[in-house]
Amino acid sequence: MEWRERYELGLARMDETHREFVAFCNELCSVAPENFLARLDAFIEHTAAHFDQENRWMEAVNFPACHRAEHDRVLDVIREVRQRVEQGDAFLGRRLLEELPPWFDNHVDTMDAALAFYLKEIGFDTEACALPTGSTAQGTAAGCACQSTPEGVETCRNP
Ligand SMILES: [Fe+2]
Ligand SMILES: [Fe+2]
After folding, report:
1. What is the topology classification, in CATH, of domain 12-134?
2. How far is the CA of 135 from the centre of ligand 1 (A)?
3. What is the largest CA-CA distance in the chain?
4. Would the pLDDT of 75 be above 90?
5. Strands, E assignment, the chain
6. Helices 66-86 & 36-61 angle (0-180, nearest 10)
7. What is the pTM of this model?
8. Which ligand is nearest to the CA of 58?
9. Of 2, 20, 31, 158, which one is least surrounded by beta carbons within 10 A?
10. Distance 92 CA to ligand 1 centre (A)
């Protein structure tokens, strides 16, 4: 999985976390089979923290909840795959690694891009997880126009 310029959304903390996400995906693709589960666990931990970080920011600015729901859904899928891999289903682990890059590509382009755009616009402090003093921006984020495809995958446009 290659890092692309359009993945840079201009929020330092978010971009750094996304670079780590890509590095994890690449590492998982080449890790020795006997180490796969341990590295998958590390990836799950990182992804939970990655999603949590964005969820906290969204909560602080009252951002539409569909982005959070997407995080929860994806994390559930990854954890489910982890259980199946532990039970011996290595194929499903490989399928997950094929699915993650296109999912990430779409998620960064849509939901994360919308969030980054909004947070930058209102001058949100991602380190302090706080709005700038005196800001009245809370609760003004637009909806994220999500649609479910027949496969149950949510696709979203920038508001
Ligand atoms: Fe993200
Ligand atoms: Fe996200």
Report:
1. Four Helix Bundle (Hemerythrin (Met), subunit A) (1.20.120)
2. 24
3. 55
4. yes
5. 146-148, 154-156
6. 170
7. 0.86
8. 2
9. 2
10. 23
